[in-house]
Amino acid sequence: MPTSPSPGKPADERIRCPHDAAYMEKISAGRVTLDHCARCGRVWCDPYELAVASADRKTADTVDYGTAGHDYDNTMHNPGQLHCPRDGAPLIKVPDPRQPHVIIDICRTCGGVLLDAGELKDLSELTLAERLKGLFKK
Ligand SMILES: [Zn+2]
Ligand SMILES: [Zn+2]
What we know:
Number of helices: 4
Number of domains: 1
Order of helices and strands: EEEHHEEEHH
Strand order of the largest sheet: 1-2-3-6-5-4
Number of strands: 6
Bound molecules: zinc ion
Helix content: 10-25%
């Protein structure tokens, strides 16, 4: 469902976690605000947020993994198709070429990226933004 920003009226900007539908809370991480799910630890990055976050390694260190993050076993869950919290487009799973254990869910419509708990930290150690740019070019 498209949302049109109406001037003067602050919209509820919270989005729901594509994984478990919990409301994601805005968290301040360095110079950006990310959407963080406290239930599963996933983080939703809009493209501009990602670019800034990946350029600042400190950002990843400030993101906590959520209450279930550390012992969260992804193999125990098979939620099926995830959808973009912004536009409802199906998220596409893309394995990271350099770190095959990292599967990134990306939205080709808006360029948003859903990161599992810990992925942001993993990826931030490399030039995430540049590599994602490559993924979208395919
Ligand atoms: Zn979640
Ligand atoms: Zn999207």
